[in-house]
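FW: tagging you since you asked about this chain on Friday. Here's the raw sequence from the shared folder, copied in full. Didn't touch anything.
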Amino acid sequence: MKKINKKISVAIANYNNEMYIETMLDCLLAQSYKNLEIIVVNDGSPGDCDSIMAKYNDDRIKYVKHEKNKGLFQARLTGAEHATGDYIAFLDADDYVSHDYFRSMIYEAEKSSSDIVIGNIVLKYDDGKEEYFNLFETNYNELNGEECLEEYFRQEGLNFSWHTGCNQLYSMKLWKKAEPHYKKITKRLLMTEDFAFSTVLFYYAKKVTKVDYECLFYCKHGITSTSINDINVKKETNNINDLITSFTFVENFLKEKKVYDKYEKNFNNWKLLYAGMHRGYIKNAKKISKTDKDSLEELMNNYCENTQEISNSGFFSSIVSKWDDRLDRLHAKIIDEKIKCVSFDIFDTLVVRPFLRPTDLFKFLDKEYRKEVNGGVEFSEMREVSEVIARNNQYEEDSSIQEITLDDIYNVIHDVYYIDNKILSRLKKVEEELEIKFCEQRKTAYNLYQLALNCGKKVICTSDMYLPLDVIKKILDKNGYNDIDKIYLSSEIKKTKSTGDLFDYVIKDLEISAKEIVHIGDNKLSDYKIPSKKGINAVHFYKATDVFLDRSLTNGLGQIFNTSLPFWQDNKESVQFMGIRTMIAVIANKYFDNPFRPFNKKTDFNADPYLIGYYALGMYVFGISNWLLKEVNGKNDKISFMARDGYLVMEAYDRLSKLYLEAPKSEYMYVSRKALIPVMIQSELDFYRLSEIVDYRKHSPKSLIKYLKSVLKLDDKLEEKCNKSGIEFERKFKSLLEFNRFIKFLIDNYFDKKSHIETSKKYKEYFDSILGKNPAVFDVGYSGRPEYYLTRLCGKSIDTYFLNINGDRALTYSNIGDFEVKTFFNYKPTATGNAYELLISKLSPSCIGYDISGDNVKPIFEDYKFKYQVDYVVETMQKAALEFVDDMIHIFGEDISLLHYQDCYVSMPMLAYYNSARRLDKAVLEAVEFEDDIKSSGSRKMIDDMQEDLDSKNQIPLPNMISGIIGFDSGPVKVGDLYYNPFVDLNNKSKIRRILYFLLYDRETLKRRIRDSISKLRKK
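HL: got it, structure written out here
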């Protein structure tokens, strides 16, 4: 491993924080990364900073003093002037960072050539409580070029982790570009200075990345400069003037760089947000009189008028969870100078496999076996049983030899099943290749490995495994573990961790004491309890799938697969499908790569958009798109995905289609109920169908007419004619009779059939070019009307694929229009509507019609209504879902066809979230509001609609379902040293389970059945 030793300058501004600064300095000196230059700037602090600094005799520390207080902004500039590092970071004197913070930051910066690396923020309170904001996690891994400033301004100050500065590492080259601009601020500046700093840095940045898990501990004290209990007129006047200084500086900078016009709206919203915060401080201040409050309000208004309130401004800090410091404590153990050696388990620790059951890997051998042998028992079953037999044989022959080898297993296969050794030799080689292929680096463990090497520790592997040493080395080398000092393998040494003998061997061979070793592994017994008894510093580094499925750790997250819930389907049987098992493993390996990832105990989805997206939405769109491809592959020449609900499925379809030889080409088709009204109308009678599309009781003639303009020849006397006909133009319809009367009025006075025929020709040409010759369409559902209208317009049958239908109307339309309708669900899920559609929809304006004035038809779009908070959450979910699809393709490729599952099981997590998520899990969608000006009026929070679904459709939250589960168990019986259930029911159990049961408890029956099977094969 290439060791990085570039210098990081850390500038610390101190004013009146003497009681905290020693914690900060001690933290920095104990960092895993040693090449630090620590610059403490005493900004005219009234405390005894000199005495504290005199205690530290370390040549990495520089001490600089201001004779009088100049404010945080100038103190940081002073610190930077004394910096000589390759990178620079800024910290407040009352904050501190995690043990491996700077090593992780600089390794990321060097690896990715980043200008800015962003870490996490954990809030530390005076009472010791540590929390983090769930929604502070950024939804990107890296930003490049103009993306850096675009994303920075896009969040408009709502997520302060972007601009707080103290959680970031900057390249010195970047800082030197920004530094001259800061010289333009010469006054004392304390508040909002981070906005001035960060804007310039993000402007010049060409690449921004982040690190996971390493964090700044941002200390929150009872009294601050904006505390309502302590704020006074002078302090708040200074705060407002600071705000004006910072925002004026940024505005001038953006204008100088000629980008102000591009970001003006974002800038003004940011300014409104901060002005609104200060108005709140003034309003709630306890030590300011009414007269002074009015004066402060006037000062604020003179710079930024109170034109509007930023809605959901507290969204990003609305969900708070307890921080989990176990990973940081593990870092501290490795860094400890007393530790000489760090030992790692290999499988499920250093590397992970995409299998819930490790034996699922053998399923991939069946395909190779069938090339050699036609029929008979699946090789995967023989392979699994033979390993058990080999272990039993070895124990009976010589119990001092504690481990078997892969050769031992294949010898048993030959002896029991009479398979030719040449065939077995090839299969054994394939198994070894599969192990190498499917083993992937566990990133958190790799970071621990790098940390150990960086700290000069001896790094070894200690593993119970039957694979040969050369295969183990190839697995480790493939995954970047190239500097392992020694590998202690049970198959080589014939001793195991599970007995403790392998640890004794390691201690003796290394010639060090047990307490000088840290051992890290996933097995609670062999990697934690047994080495702990021997005095080794053992750490239980949980297997990712164990965390996912453990109710005590992650509540109901994986319980829909782990426990049969009160549905009219046996969802516990889902894990009998290898496809579901592999998906669970892939999800667990990704999300719980760090087994100590904080998980909110009041949630089942961790109130995390990324988890909801990668897990629930990811499995869902994978299942839908794979179903769709199986349906249309080789059948249609083109498939159109209807806007906007078809967007995410189309993205997944395009990825998966590369695995299908005859997948139809995809296209995104801009349609909506509003837009297709002109297409619907082919004759006078079709006008009366409008009542099927719009809720006429929510509309007046005036509001309805906008949907019909393209099929009518209107004049400026419309309102006058309506009133003369006794139709009130601006009053909402009270009955269908009134509605139909208005429709007849329009047909009689404004419908020009000849003109409409010409218009229809344009629409036909437009949609023909999109649909293709042998078309299919995908839409979320539900009625089949748009497909019927398009079929009638284009004169061709359009194969239609929905998630579900509502009632039999779609089937009626398919019969009338002679087109096929197929659905992903063979029932209507309880959760439909806005939430059901939003998460798979494109975040873009809706198509509300078409411009047919020119030679070509062009979609017309309404204004985009969603705010950044909504974009952030839905984008995070959608990116994560597509990441899951990409991961499945990357891991399994064409072998995805071997991953069998049923559609009802692959959609369970998404339906569990829609129907039974707890309030805190749904709170990530708190900012989503909808207006439906066709079916209703006004806006509603989507989260309220979801709650109504829970209440009105007999749905209950996951914890209520899980807590009500009753299990039946007659209790175990002891026979010798084994406990087993004498009333076990083997009916409907897998063949593997039956074989293992008979192997342990009824070997005579097993031998007889094996003989019978072989006899039948020979007769064939």
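FW: Residues 1-221 form a domain with the Spore Coat Polysaccharide Biosynthesis Protein SpsA; Chain A fold (CATH 3.90.550.10).
HL: agreed, and The chain has a mean pLDDT of 91.
FW: great, closing this out.
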